[in-house]
Structure formats: structure tokens, C-alpha cells
Amino acid sequence: MNxxxxxxxxALLSPALLSPILSNAQDTARQIPLWPNxxxxxxxRRNDPEQAKDYWVKNIHNPxxxxxxxxxxxxxxxxxxxxxxxxxxxxxxxxEGRDPARFLNSIGVAAFIVKYxxxxxxxxxxxxxxxxxxxxxxxxxxxxxxxxxxxxxxNRVGILGFSAGGxxxxxxxxxxxxxxxxxxxxxxxxxxxxxxxxxxxxxxxGVPTEVPHDAPPTFLIAANDDECCSPPVVSLLxxxxxxxxxVEAHILSQGKHGFNMGYRSDLKAVRAMxxxxxxxxxxxxxxxxxx
Length: 291
Hints:
Number of strands: 11
Strand order of the largest sheet: 1-4-7-5-8-9-10-11
Strand content: 15-25%
CATH class: Alpha Beta
Mean pLDDT: 91
Distance between the termini: 43 Å
Number of helices: 8
Oligomer: single chain
Number of domains: 1
Low-confidence stretches: 1-26
């Protein structure tokens, strides 16, 4: 089977161009829980403290979103819900949450980083199919429920998933995600289905048997020397093409696993990754100003 891989033809970003995104971004972020009284069935654990050190966060029992909004004069109305990776044992919160949120803000996109529960952490009391899925849907619905407050278009809410976060994204992208019209909580009446998704070296658990025709348009990127997570990109590309759903895939020759937003890499192709993502968002008309 012939597979069409895209060749990136874009202006390469130098460290001088990328650094301001990180150093000049002002953190006005705030964190709110997905459920005011704690996760259903685990309300008693909502006050358990998270553990955070260096780049990671874990021991998450009160799942939340951290809100990054772009300046009002720059806001396009588009929004992205971010699922950091970390093998479901921790969350790479800074490099796969904060950094992409800042970049998205710089191009006028609101960003919401999800601290979801970790089913492979030592406690092992959660499952991917139940609690993690519950967190993912709740995050999408919560963002849509406050679209007016946060100046976003509820029909342009997408997903950005890194590694294990790409596996979380799959829980939403290949099912209808309809809300429950009879739910007592109005948040749960809304759709949890993303309008688009971007997957950066997504994990193998995120590859469905087949991609449905209503799957969201997708941007994919991984490095060819990533033994774990370049095969899922190839497989997803094939399945998307079979389903005739819009897809763009980039296989970088080098970069291995965990290059995050590319800022720390010496490889120019890897460092260009944020602009590949931004170009795709623009080409898909996702960045058009809200009217």
C-alpha cells in the first residue's frame, strides 16, 4: 500500500524566533476542577494533594483543567483541550501542557490543559476506559459550557494529545460523544466530541480498529526513529485515508520520542513542529476570527 507522507516546506524556526514564545509569555493561568465536589464516586479524594516536581505532576485524584486564554485582541475563537503524555504514570505538565498552551495563545487559540487521572500510577485504582474517559469527556464539555465566558466558538474546540495523551484523545475522537439530554448537570448535556485533533507521537492504545467517517480532521506528527509511536501515526494515516477524513501526517527522520514542542531539540525539522501545527490550523480555517 502506498502511503503519502507530507514533506514539510515551511520557514524553519530559529531559537531566536521560538524563545520569545516561552520567555515573554505571561502566565495568567488558573486551575479549576472538572467537578466542583470532586470526581463522581471519588469525592472523598478531592483534597488529596497532587505531587509535582521538575517537569511532572502525578497523584491526581481531583481532575482539573488549567486555563490559558489569549489576549482578547488576538483571540480567534478557536480552543484546544490539551492532554499531556507521561505513560499514564505521570503528566509531563510543563513541556506537553504549559508550553503548547503558551504557543497556542500566541496564535490566538485558547488552551485548556487537562490533569486527568492516571491508571498506571502506583495506586492503580483507575482505568483508561472508565475514569480517564470520564475525565476527558468532562473536560471537553466543561470548556463548551463556558464558551461565552472564555470567548470561544463551541464548534471549534479541538484536542492536542502527546504520547499517552494521544491515547486519551482517542477515547473521544472515534465515538459520537453525545451529551445526556436528561442529565441534572447541564455540562453533561453537551457534546464531548472534538471538532479537530492534533496528535504528537500518539501511543499505540490510541489506534482504533477503524476510523469512522465522523472522526475529527487530524494532524499527526512523530519521528521515524521513535519505535513506540511512529507506527501509530502510520496506522492512523492509513485508516484516515480509508475513511476519507481529512488528515495531515508528518514523519520526521529524527527526533525519537518525547520531543515535546521541539523547543529543546537541535534538529531544525523538530524545531519547526509548532509552525507545522499552526499552518495546519490555518489551512483548515480553524484560526479564522470569530464573527
